[in-house]
Write a sequence for this structure.
Protein backbone atom coordinates (compact mmCIF):
# COMPACT_ATOMS: atom_id res chain seq x y z
CA UNK A 1 0.00 0.00 0.00
CA UNK A 2 1.35 3.43 -0.94
CA UNK A 3 0.21 6.57 0.80
CA UNK A 4 -1.09 7.06 4.34
CA UNK A 5 -4.34 5.47 5.53
CA UNK A 6 -6.69 7.85 7.37
CA UNK A 7 -9.15 6.26 9.81
CA UNK A 8 -11.87 8.30 11.49
CA UNK A 9 -13.82 7.86 14.72
CA UNK A 10 -16.62 6.35 12.66
CA UNK A 11 -14.30 3.69 11.20
CA UNK A 12 -12.54 2.55 14.36
CA UNK A 13 -15.21 1.03 16.69
CA UNK A 14 -16.26 -1.54 14.09
CA UNK A 15 -12.63 -2.48 13.40
CA UNK A 16 -11.76 -3.09 17.07
CA UNK A 17 -14.76 -3.50 19.42
CA UNK A 18 -14.02 -3.25 23.14
CA UNK A 19 -14.53 -6.96 23.76
CA UNK A 20 -12.06 -7.93 21.04
CA UNK A 21 -9.54 -5.34 22.21
CA UNK A 22 -9.12 -6.96 25.64
CA UNK A 23 -6.83 -9.74 24.41
CA UNK A 24 -4.92 -7.24 22.24
CA UNK A 25 -4.23 -5.14 25.35
CA UNK A 26 -3.19 -8.19 27.39
CA UNK A 27 -0.53 -9.06 24.80
CA UNK A 28 0.68 -5.44 24.61
CA UNK A 29 1.12 -5.29 28.39
CA UNK A 30 2.91 -8.64 28.37
CA UNK A 31 5.29 -7.26 25.71
CA UNK A 32 6.05 -4.34 28.02
CA UNK A 33 6.86 -6.76 30.84
CA UNK A 34 9.11 -8.80 28.54
CA UNK A 35 11.15 -5.70 27.71
CA UNK A 36 10.13 -5.52 24.05
CA UNK A 37 8.87 -1.93 24.28
CA UNK A 38 10.74 1.40 24.15
CA UNK A 39 8.50 3.95 25.82
CA UNK A 40 9.57 7.15 27.60
CA UNK A 41 7.24 8.93 29.98
CA UNK A 42 4.64 10.97 28.17
CA UNK A 43 5.13 14.71 27.95
CA UNK A 44 2.33 16.78 29.45
CA UNK A 45 2.16 20.53 28.93
CA UNK A 46 -0.53 22.49 30.75
CA UNK A 47 -1.88 25.67 29.18
CA UNK A 48 -1.09 28.73 31.31
CA UNK A 49 -4.57 28.94 32.84
CA UNK A 50 -4.68 25.11 33.26
CA UNK A 51 -8.00 24.74 31.46
CA UNK A 52 -6.44 22.16 29.15
CA UNK A 53 -3.27 20.26 28.39
CA UNK A 54 -1.19 18.99 25.47
CA UNK A 55 0.11 15.41 25.52
CA UNK A 56 2.77 13.59 23.48
CA UNK A 57 3.20 9.81 23.84
CA UNK A 58 5.88 8.04 21.72
CA UNK A 59 6.47 4.28 21.71
CA UNK A 60 8.26 1.59 19.68
CA UNK A 61 7.57 -2.14 19.66
CA UNK A 62 10.77 -3.40 18.06
CA UNK A 63 9.93 -7.12 17.58
CA UNK A 64 6.94 -6.01 15.50
CA UNK A 65 8.91 -3.29 13.70
CA UNK A 66 6.28 -0.68 14.55
CA UNK A 67 6.18 2.66 16.34
CA UNK A 68 3.56 5.24 17.18
CA UNK A 69 3.07 8.76 18.45
CA UNK A 70 -0.13 9.66 20.20
CA UNK A 71 -0.70 13.41 20.13
CA UNK A 72 -3.71 14.84 21.86
CA UNK A 73 -5.29 17.59 23.89
CA UNK A 74 -7.34 17.05 27.04
CA UNK A 75 -9.95 19.70 27.83
CA UNK A 76 -12.21 18.39 30.60
CA UNK A 77 -14.71 21.25 30.22
CA UNK A 78 -15.49 20.13 26.66
CA UNK A 79 -18.09 17.75 28.02
CA UNK A 80 -20.30 20.65 29.06
CA UNK A 81 -20.66 21.70 25.42
CA UNK A 82 -20.97 18.24 23.92
CA UNK A 83 -17.38 17.82 22.70
CA UNK A 84 -15.12 14.92 23.67
CA UNK A 85 -12.52 15.86 26.28
CA UNK A 86 -9.74 13.96 24.45
CA UNK A 87 -8.91 15.20 20.93
CA UNK A 88 -6.06 14.14 18.69
CA UNK A 89 -4.50 11.44 16.54
CA UNK A 90 -2.38 8.30 16.73
CA UNK A 91 0.36 8.19 14.07
CA UNK A 92 1.49 4.67 13.16
CA UNK A 93 4.95 4.12 11.64
CA UNK A 94 6.95 1.12 10.38
CA UNK A 95 10.52 0.90 11.64
CA UNK A 96 12.37 -0.40 8.59
CA UNK A 97 12.31 2.95 6.78
CA UNK A 98 10.37 5.10 9.25
CA UNK A 99 7.37 5.49 6.93
CA UNK A 100 4.11 6.88 8.24
CA UNK A 101 1.48 4.20 7.61
CA UNK A 102 -1.68 5.52 9.17
CA UNK A 103 -3.31 8.42 11.01
CA UNK A 104 -6.05 7.27 13.35
CA UNK A 105 -8.58 9.18 15.44
CA UNK A 106 -7.29 9.23 19.03
CA UNK A 107 -10.65 9.88 20.69
CA UNK A 108 -12.10 6.53 19.69
CA UNK A 109 -8.87 4.60 20.26
CA UNK A 110 -8.58 6.09 23.76
CA UNK A 111 -12.16 5.16 24.62
CA UNK A 112 -11.76 1.57 23.41
CA UNK A 113 -8.27 0.69 24.64
CA UNK A 114 -8.73 2.26 28.09
CA UNK A 115 -11.84 0.22 28.78
CA UNK A 116 -10.21 -2.90 27.34
CA UNK A 117 -7.23 -2.53 29.71
CA UNK A 118 -9.69 -2.25 32.59
CA UNK A 119 -11.20 -5.46 31.22
CA UNK A 120 -7.80 -7.16 31.48
CA UNK A 121 -7.42 -5.90 35.07
CA UNK A 122 -10.92 -7.04 36.01
CA UNK A 123 -10.35 -10.48 34.51
CA UNK A 124 -7.23 -10.87 36.69
CA UNK A 125 -8.25 -9.06 39.88
CA UNK A 126 -12.02 -9.18 40.38
CA UNK A 127 -13.73 -12.13 42.02
CA UNK A 128 -15.05 -14.67 39.55
CA UNK A 129 -18.62 -14.06 40.71
CA UNK A 130 -18.36 -10.24 40.67
CA UNK A 131 -21.37 -8.75 38.92
CA UNK A 132 -22.71 -5.77 40.92
CA UNK A 133 -21.22 -2.87 38.93
CA UNK A 134 -21.01 0.80 39.90
CA UNK A 135 -19.88 3.38 37.36
CA UNK A 136 -18.90 6.85 38.56
CA UNK A 137 -19.12 9.19 35.58
CA UNK A 138 -21.47 9.24 32.61
CA UNK A 139 -19.30 10.12 29.61
CA UNK A 140 -17.70 8.11 26.83
CA UNK A 141 -15.52 6.05 29.15
CA UNK A 142 -18.54 5.09 31.24
CA UNK A 143 -20.10 3.55 28.14
CA UNK A 144 -17.05 1.64 26.97
CA UNK A 145 -16.34 0.43 30.52
CA UNK A 146 -19.82 -1.02 30.74
CA UNK A 147 -19.02 -2.97 27.55
CA UNK A 148 -15.68 -4.15 28.94
CA UNK A 149 -17.12 -5.26 32.27
CA UNK A 150 -19.88 -7.23 30.54
CA UNK A 151 -17.22 -8.93 28.39
CA UNK A 152 -15.31 -10.34 31.39
CA UNK A 153 -17.85 -10.79 34.19
CA UNK A 154 -21.54 -11.83 34.46
CA UNK A 155 -22.98 -8.39 35.23
CA UNK A 156 -26.31 -8.65 37.03
CA UNK A 157 -26.76 -5.09 38.33
CA UNK A 158 -25.50 -1.68 37.17
CA UNK A 159 -25.66 1.64 39.00
CA UNK A 160 -24.35 4.94 37.64
CA UNK A 161 -23.63 8.26 39.31
CA UNK A 162 -22.61 11.57 37.80
CA UNK A 163 -22.14 15.05 39.22
CA UNK A 164 -25.00 15.92 36.87
CA UNK A 165 -28.09 13.92 37.79
CA UNK A 166 -29.52 14.62 34.32
CA UNK A 167 -26.42 13.11 32.71
CA UNK A 168 -26.68 10.04 34.95
CA UNK A 169 -30.34 9.60 34.04
CA UNK A 170 -29.69 9.98 30.31
CA UNK A 171 -26.76 7.56 30.44
CA UNK A 172 -28.90 5.03 32.32
CA UNK A 173 -31.65 5.27 29.72
CA UNK A 174 -29.27 4.88 26.77
CA UNK A 175 -27.27 2.05 28.32
CA UNK A 176 -30.38 0.18 29.41
CA UNK A 177 -31.76 0.30 25.89
CA UNK A 178 -28.52 -0.63 24.11
CA UNK A 179 -27.38 -3.41 26.47
CA UNK A 180 -30.70 -4.90 27.46
CA UNK A 181 -29.87 -4.60 31.15
CA UNK A 182 -31.39 -2.21 33.67
CA UNK A 183 -29.00 0.61 34.57
CA UNK A 184 -30.02 2.52 37.68
CA UNK A 185 -29.09 6.20 38.20
CA UNK A 186 -27.93 6.89 41.77
CA UNK A 187 -28.36 10.14 43.69
CA UNK A 188 -24.89 9.99 45.28
CA UNK A 189 -21.60 8.26 44.61
CA UNK A 190 -21.92 6.46 47.94
CA UNK A 191 -25.33 5.11 46.94
CA UNK A 192 -23.88 3.84 43.68
CA UNK A 193 -20.95 1.93 45.22
CA UNK A 194 -22.53 0.58 48.42
CA UNK A 195 -22.36 -3.19 48.15
CA UNK A 196 -20.82 -3.12 44.65
CA UNK A 197 -18.09 -5.66 43.88
CA UNK A 198 -17.01 -3.92 40.65
CA UNK A 199 -16.44 -0.16 40.48
CA UNK A 200 -15.20 1.96 37.57
CA UNK A 201 -14.31 5.61 38.19
CA UNK A 202 -14.43 7.47 34.87
CA UNK A 203 -14.75 11.11 35.92
CA UNK A 204 -12.65 14.19 35.28
CA UNK A 205 -12.73 15.10 38.97
CA UNK A 206 -9.61 16.47 40.62
CA UNK A 207 -10.94 15.62 44.09
CA UNK A 208 -11.90 12.15 45.37
CA UNK A 209 -15.29 10.84 44.28
CA UNK A 210 -14.71 7.39 45.82
CA UNK A 211 -13.88 6.91 49.49
CA UNK A 212 -12.26 3.84 50.98
CA UNK A 213 -14.81 3.59 53.76
CA UNK A 214 -17.51 2.85 51.14
CA UNK A 215 -15.75 -0.17 49.63
CA UNK A 216 -17.19 -3.59 50.38
CA UNK A 217 -14.81 -6.45 51.19
CA UNK A 218 -13.75 -8.14 47.96
CA UNK A 219 -14.48 -5.15 45.74
CA UNK A 220 -12.38 -4.40 42.67
CA UNK A 221 -11.90 -0.83 41.40
CA UNK A 222 -10.73 0.37 37.98
CA UNK A 223 -9.63 4.02 38.37
CA UNK A 224 -9.05 5.74 35.03
CA UNK A 225 -10.26 9.35 35.10
CA UNK A 226 -7.93 11.71 36.97
CA UNK A 227 -5.04 13.34 35.10
CA UNK A 228 -1.90 14.56 36.87
CA UNK A 229 -0.04 14.04 40.12
CA UNK A 230 -2.27 16.53 41.95
CA UNK A 231 -5.63 15.02 40.92
CA UNK A 232 -7.32 11.87 42.18
CA UNK A 233 -10.66 10.08 42.02
CA UNK A 234 -9.91 7.78 45.00
CA UNK A 235 -9.07 9.04 48.48
CA UNK A 236 -6.08 7.92 50.52
CA UNK A 237 -8.04 5.34 52.49
CA UNK A 238 -9.16 3.59 49.30
CA UNK A 239 -5.56 3.29 48.17
CA UNK A 240 -4.20 2.37 51.61
CA UNK A 241 -6.54 -0.58 52.09
CA UNK A 242 -6.14 -1.94 48.56
CA UNK A 243 -3.90 -4.34 46.67
CA UNK A 244 -2.70 -1.80 44.10
CA UNK A 245 -1.79 -2.67 40.50
CA UNK A 246 -0.81 -0.18 37.78
CA UNK A 247 -0.16 -0.38 34.06
CA UNK A 248 3.37 0.99 34.53
CA UNK A 249 5.22 1.79 37.75
CA UNK A 250 7.29 4.64 36.34
CA UNK A 251 4.17 6.39 35.09
CA UNK A 252 2.23 5.81 38.32
CA UNK A 253 4.88 7.04 40.75
CA UNK A 254 5.31 10.23 38.72
CA UNK A 255 1.78 10.98 37.50
CA UNK A 256 -0.92 9.07 39.44
CA UNK A 257 -2.41 11.46 41.96
CA UNK A 258 -3.92 8.62 43.98
CA UNK A 259 -0.47 7.16 44.60
CA UNK A 260 1.53 10.39 44.78
CA UNK A 261 -0.76 12.09 47.29
CA UNK A 262 -1.27 9.02 49.49
CA UNK A 263 2.50 8.57 49.64
CA UNK A 264 3.01 12.26 50.49
CA UNK A 265 0.57 11.84 53.37
CA UNK A 266 2.64 8.94 54.71
CA UNK A 267 -0.09 6.35 54.21
CA UNK A 268 1.85 4.16 51.76
CA UNK A 269 5.35 3.57 50.40
CA UNK A 270 6.62 2.74 46.92
CA UNK A 271 6.20 -0.97 47.59
CA UNK A 272 2.45 -0.52 47.96
CA UNK A 273 2.31 -1.06 44.19
CA UNK A 274 2.36 -4.86 44.05
CA UNK A 275 2.92 -5.07 40.31
CA UNK A 276 2.29 -3.91 36.79
CA UNK A 277 -0.67 -5.35 34.95
CA UNK A 278 1.65 -7.02 32.42
CA UNK A 279 3.29 -8.89 35.28
CA UNK A 280 -0.11 -10.29 36.21
CA UNK A 281 -0.75 -11.25 32.58
CA UNK A 282 2.54 -13.18 32.38
CA UNK A 283 2.10 -14.77 35.81
CA UNK A 284 5.13 -13.04 37.33
CA UNK A 285 2.89 -11.47 39.99
CA UNK A 286 -0.31 -13.03 41.36
CA UNK A 287 -3.61 -11.23 40.99
CA UNK A 288 -6.27 -11.47 43.70
CA UNK A 289 -5.00 -13.38 46.75
CA UNK A 290 -8.23 -13.74 48.78
CA UNK A 291 -12.00 -13.32 48.34
CA UNK A 292 -12.12 -10.47 50.87
CA UNK A 293 -9.23 -8.46 49.45
CA UNK A 294 -9.94 -5.00 47.98
CA UNK A 295 -8.09 -4.55 44.70
CA UNK A 296 -7.45 -1.36 42.72
CA UNK A 297 -6.15 -1.00 39.18
CA UNK A 298 -4.91 2.55 38.61
CA UNK A 299 -4.76 3.05 34.87
CA UNK A 300 -2.50 5.76 33.53
CA UNK A 301 -3.09 5.02 29.86
CA UNK A 302 0.25 4.25 28.20
CA UNK A 303 1.41 4.51 24.62
CA UNK A 304 1.99 0.79 24.02
CA UNK A 305 -1.76 0.35 24.39
CA UNK A 306 -2.38 2.90 21.63
CA UNK A 307 0.25 1.28 19.41
CA UNK A 308 -1.23 -2.20 19.81
CA UNK A 309 -4.72 -0.92 19.10
CA UNK A 310 -3.53 1.09 16.08
CA UNK A 311 -1.66 -1.91 14.63
CA UNK A 312 -4.72 -4.12 14.85
CA UNK A 313 -7.06 -1.46 13.47
CA UNK A 314 -4.69 -0.65 10.58
CA UNK A 315 -4.36 -4.31 9.60
CA UNK A 316 -8.10 -4.91 9.70
CA UNK A 317 -8.81 -1.71 7.77
CA UNK A 318 -6.55 -2.85 4.94
CA UNK A 319 -8.15 -6.31 4.93
CA UNK A 320 -11.67 -4.81 4.76
CA UNK A 321 -10.96 -1.87 2.50
CA UNK A 322 -11.88 0.74 5.12
CA UNK A 323 -10.51 4.30 5.28
CA UNK A 324 -9.10 6.88 2.90
CA UNK A 325 -5.56 6.85 1.50
CA UNK A 326 -3.75 10.16 1.03
CA UNK A 327 -0.26 10.97 -0.21
CA UNK A 328 1.95 12.23 2.63
CA UNK A 329 5.68 12.04 3.22
CA UNK A 330 6.87 11.31 -0.31
CA UNK A 331 8.08 8.07 -1.81
CA UNK A 332 11.74 9.06 -2.24
CA UNK A 333 14.27 11.57 -0.94
CA UNK A 334 14.04 14.93 -2.68
CA UNK A 335 17.19 16.44 -1.21
CA UNK A 336 17.63 18.38 1.99
Amino acid sequence: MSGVLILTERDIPALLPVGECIDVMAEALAALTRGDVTMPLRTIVWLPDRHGLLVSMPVALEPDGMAAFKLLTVFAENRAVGIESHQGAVLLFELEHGRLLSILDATSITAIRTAAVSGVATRLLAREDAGDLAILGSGTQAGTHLEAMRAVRPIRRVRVWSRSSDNARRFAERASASHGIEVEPSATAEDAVTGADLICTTTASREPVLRGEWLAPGAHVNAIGAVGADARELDTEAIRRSRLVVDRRESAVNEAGEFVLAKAEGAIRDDHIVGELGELVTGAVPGRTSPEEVTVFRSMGIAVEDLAAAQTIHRRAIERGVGVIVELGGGSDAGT
Q: What stands out?
A: The radius of gyration is 20 Å. The mean pLDDT is 93. The CA atoms of residues 91 and 121 lie 26 Å apart. The chain has two domains: 4-109+303-326, 128-298.
